[in-house]
């Protein structure tokens, strides 16, 4: 005879996973329809590319922000004390996660890492609530190519005395970023690989 509490727990877990899969499918469609473009582009890394992911079309979209916040919150380790990212790309992402975390009764502050120190006031690189020393922070990124942008955020946070063990990105372009993170002992995950977005982009154009 099946143990009823165990059976209910399995049912709840399956329902939760199904909900996450549905959210992920919705977000994939938004990226494929609104953000993915093909042409001749120069990336922030300086590399040339035949495609571009205009992520703000999704991260600043009301439904996109909601989906991003819910999915990323589900990916965070349970001991996460804050999320952080390099301005400007990560600003709406960390904000979305922090807002959703409050709605889910799991409040997680957001930090924004400046590229240059503020020229007035505290002259800080890091904006956001003060955290205890060695607080565990997950760095969030929009699109990972070479991985250098998120590493700047990691370095700033570590220099400030925080603990960073993981980076999570919306999209991985599969151009060396994951390998860079692993080489310095950081865990890395992405909601989508670029292959998934390109496949869905072509499906939607049929």
Number of helices: 7
Cα-based radius of gyration, to the nearest Å? 18 Å
- Major sheet: 6 strands, mixed
Point out poorly predicted stretches: none
- Determine and state the CATH class: Alpha Beta
Which features characterize this protein?
206 residues, Rossmann fold, two-stranded antiparallel ribbon, 7 helices, 8 strands
3D structure, described in words:
With 206 residues, the protein is an alpha/beta fold. The model has no long low-confidence stretch (mean pLDDT 93). The protein has a 6-stranded mixed beta sheet with strand order 5-4-3-6-7-8, with helices on both faces. It has a two-stranded antiparallel sheet with strand order 1-2. It has a single domain (4-205), classed as Rossmann fold (3-Layer(aba) Sandwich), CATH 3.40.50.2020. Helix content is 46%, strand content 24%. The radius of gyration is 18 Å and the shape is globular.
Any chance you could write out the topology, listing elements then pairs?
Layout: H1 4-35, E1 36-42, E2 48-53, H2 56-59, H3 62-75, E3 82-86, H4 91-103, E4 110-113, E5 126-127, E6 136-144, H5 148-159, E7 163-172, H6 177-183, E8 187-193, H7 194-205
Parallel strand pairs: 3-4, 3-6, 6-7, 7-8
Antiparallel strand pairs: 1-2, 4-5
Helix pairs in contact: 1-3, 1-7, 3-4
């Amino acid at each position: 005879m099946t143990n009823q509490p165990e059976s209910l727990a399995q049912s709840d877990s399956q329902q939760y996973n199904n909900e996450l899969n549905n959210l992920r499918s919705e977000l994939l469609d938004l990226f494929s329809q609104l953000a993915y473009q093909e042409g001749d582009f120069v990336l922030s890394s300086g590399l040339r590319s035949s495609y571009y992911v205009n992520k703000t079309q999704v991260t600043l979209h009301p439904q996109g922000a909601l989906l991003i916040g819910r999915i990323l919150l589900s990916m965070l380790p349970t001991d996460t004390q804050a999320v952080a990212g390099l301005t400007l790309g990560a600003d709406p992402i960390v904000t979305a996660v922090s807002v959703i975390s409050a709605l889910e009764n799991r409040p997680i502050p957001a930090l924004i890492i400046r590229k240059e120190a503020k020229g007035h006031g505290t002259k800080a690189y890091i904006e956001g609530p003060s955290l205890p020393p060695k607080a565990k922070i997950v760095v969030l990124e929009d699109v990972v190519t070479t991985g250098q942008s998120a590493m700047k955020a990691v370095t700033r946070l570590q220099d400030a005395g925080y603990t960073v063990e993981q980076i999570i990105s919306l999209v991985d372009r599969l151009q060396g970023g994951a390998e860079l993170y692993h080489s310095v002992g950081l865990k890395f995950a992405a909601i989508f690989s670029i292959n998934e977005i390109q496949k869905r982009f072509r499906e939607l154009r049929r």
